[in-house]
Amino acid sequence: MASEIVDCTPYREQLLALVAELPEVPRADLYGFLQQAKELSERLPEGLAAALDSFNAEGSEAGYLLLRGLPVVEDELPPTPSSTPAPVDRRRTAMEAMLALAGRRLGLHTGYQELRSGTVYHDVYPSPGAHYLSSETSETLLEFHTEMAYHVLQPNYVMLACSRADHERRAETLVGSVRRALPLLSEEVRTRLFDRKLPCCVDVAFRGGEEDPGAIAEVKPLYGNVNDPYLGYDRELLAPEEPEDKEAVAALSQALDDVTESVKLTPGDLLIIDNFRTTHARTPFTPRWDGQDRWLHRVYIRTDRNGQLSGGERAGDVIAFTPRR
Ligand SMILES: O=C(O)CCC(=O)C(=O)O
Ligand SMILES: [Fe+2]
């Protein structure tokens, strides 16, 4: 199984050369950009390519793969964004290019129509007065969530690439892995939660303009292979009703807390989260609103694992919401 951290500093020159072959303005023709990235991803340095392929095939115990020491080109970085989506003519950053190259080695970049105006590349930056469920929060804990666990076309991976850390380097991205949590669960809890559909609310973007449509989806906390299950866990949105379900979810929740690993993303880091085997969160930090605040780039990747693709899709497609039921 893949080791969790790959030091990419030895590949710097090779990676910068690949980045330079990508079009300079990704959003001008995103399909073209991601197609070019696919071809270039065949030429990734061997060690890096092998780590990505192995993670894609088998996952890891910790549920993530962290690429460290990727080239961030400081002088080409504009101020941290304060609005969304990014202007179509914004020049690519090195870390956005890395999301294209590493992402295409894994699968297909996917945009979600209802989310961030249906864009494929998201900027993750602090925003004053953000909703408590939003990745734009900063001074409050962003609680454990599996990205779009309630969406039939849930992404297989969430990729987060860091161009800027918070000033105090306090923010931690937390990952709770089901492979680590499962041994802590009693047989009773496992059986209760396996293949059991529980009511689940959805994120604000998917509520169709209604303030609180309630639990419009159903999510299975554990499913797939009984000995190596997938996880669907969202601390804020999952809404078990029956006492036995509430108790079992509380036990799962505790187990995930017990095995949580933390990553402090620093510039040049690219974190690939296995979104079918983990839940993730982010601890508070203090923004300064000076143009140098924490700045991540995010993409979602679908692969053919668990039927997330049916054939004919392209990297860069933007898809509509169907709740899991
Ligand atoms: O800011 C982070 O480290 C993670 C935020 C998050 O959950 C996301 O962007 O999906
Ligand atoms: Fe997230």
UniProtKB/TrEMBL annotation:
The keyword Oxidoreductase applies. One of its GO terms (molecular function) is iron ion binding. Pfam families: TauD (PF02668). Its cofactor is Fe(2+). Fe cation binds at residues 145, 147, 280. GO terms for biological process: antibiotic biosynthetic process. InterPro entries: AlphaKG_dependent_hydroxylases (IPR050411), Clavaminate_syn-like (IPR014503), Clavaminate_Synthase (IPR053503), TauD-like_sf (IPR042098), TauD/TfdA-like (IPR003819). Residues 111-300 form the TauD/TfdA-like domain. Signal peptide: none annotated. Keywords: Antibiotic biosynthesis, Iron, Metal-binding, Oxidoreductase. It comes from the Bacteria. The keyword Magnesium does not apply. Coiled coil: none annotated. Gene3D superfamilies: Clavaminate synthase-like. Belongs to the clavaminate synthase family. This is Clavaminate synthase.
